[in-house]
Every structure is written in structure tokens, then in C-alpha cells.
Amino acid sequence: MSVPTTEHGGEQAPVLQGLWECVRAGQEEILPSPYLPASCAFFMHILLCAPFLALDTLGSVCQRVRSWRIAAGSGPPPSPRRWFECFCRILYKYLTAVIPATALFQFLRSPDFPELAPSCRQLFVEVVACFLLFDTLFFVLHYGLHRVPWLYRKIHHMHHQHHLPFALAAQDASSAELLLLLLLALSCAWVLGCHPLSEVIFHLLNSWLAVEDHCGYNLPWALHRLLPGLGGAPHHQTHHSMQSVNYAPYFTHWDQFFGTYRASARLLRPASGDSRR
Questions:
Q1: Distance of CA 187 to CAs 125, 130, 179, 183, 194, Å?
Q2: What is the pTM of this model?
Q3: Fewer Cβ atoms within 10 Å of its own Cβ: the N or the C terminal residue of the chain?
Q4: Is the per-residue pLDDT at 243 higher than 80?
């Protein structure tokens, strides 16, 4: 493979260029189809939820797994039947709203596939910028959905049927809310003018973080334990329990700034001597 000599090249170009070639080949097959992008997003969500389905299944027989649950004393993990019912609701909304809306969007957009991959620095900056912008816009939207009664009843109430959420429930929301979140994520990458590879990585990580936020587990290897400023599943489960705090999806700085932050009691327990952490 030849090494590009443009500003997108640099020492890391061979690694990113190889990754971009693989992604571009797949995208050039997927994006021209009006139905494949949303279908792939749906199946990616299911795939990311699979490890937590395994944890919920193990939780019925393994005390160690149950100890990782944030609401460990509130009862057993969600049953397979509850998972299946949630799966059916999400599938119905994708078939009736998300896939048709995405198909229309595909007819209107003209995707660009540059030959060169971004530099590592460009990719990192663009992905982080996307998350910061998405987190900000989501905070504003989420706050409005809770503070305006009509919006809460018509759009957001369905998502809050889960007082103790689980991974699959990340997309168990009204059709209108699913479309709003899709538009929000797409707009962030568009406004920032991201390279398509940065956009792909942002959407993948965004899907994973949404699943992890709703998983119901405070896992020892969770991202909020590794990266400062992330709230993680305890942060978002506190929102589902109280509904008037922790509006931001991933980071905590906006909630802290506006006084809507509430720490999880689970995280306030001392780490030493706590065998249930």
C-alpha cells in the first residue's frame, strides 16, 4: 500500500487508510440503498445488547453477576420475555417510522467518499467534538421533553416506562423520539463537517454508550470508571428513577453547571471492603 503524502497522510496514514478502505467499500454498498442503513443500525443495536442479555440470563444463577446490578436489591434481572416484548416494539417502530424516514433521507443526500483517510488527530478531534455537541443538544432536548408536559406525554413518556432500564430499552421510545435522536446524531456530524470515517466511528460509539447507559450494571470495566467526566449507567439510571435530574446522556458537566446533577448512591459507597462493587 502506498503512503499518501498529503496533509491527511503522516506516519499513521497506512493504518487509517487501510481501515478507511474497508469502511468505504462497505459504505458504498450500504448508503445507495434506501433501507440498508437503518437496518444495519437496528441489527448493530441488537448485537451490542447481546452481552447484557447474557448477563441478565446469568444473573438468575450467579450471585457475582447480580452484585454488579445497580438496583441489586430491587428484584431479578429482566426476563427473556420482557426482552422479547421490547424487541418487538423496537422492530415495529423501525419498520413503520425509522426505516421509511431514513429511506427518504437517503434519496435527498449525496454522500461523499474521499479517497484519503483522516489523520489520527483529525479523527480523534472530530469524534470528541461530535460527542460534546451531541451531549449538549441532547441535554437541551431532553430537558425540554421533561419540562413541557405536552412533549413529555406525547414523545418521551414511553421511554420512561422503564424505571429500571435494561440494555435493549435504550431505543424503546416513541417513533417521534427515535427520529429526533437520529436527526440529532446525523446533524452533529454534518454541522462539524466530519470525515465519513469519523462519522462512522461516532455513530458506533454513540450506539454503544447508549446501550451501556441503559444496561443497569455498574461493571468494573465500564467506561465511566475509566474516563473522567462520564456518568455511565449509574448516572442515567438515577435519571430514570427520579426523572428531574441527570438530563445529559453521557457527560456530567452540563448537569453540574445547571444544578441538575445527582450522584448515584451506588457510586458514593466506599470502594474498599465493598464486595458488591
A1: 17, 9, 12, 6, 11
A2: 0.84
A3: N
A4: yes
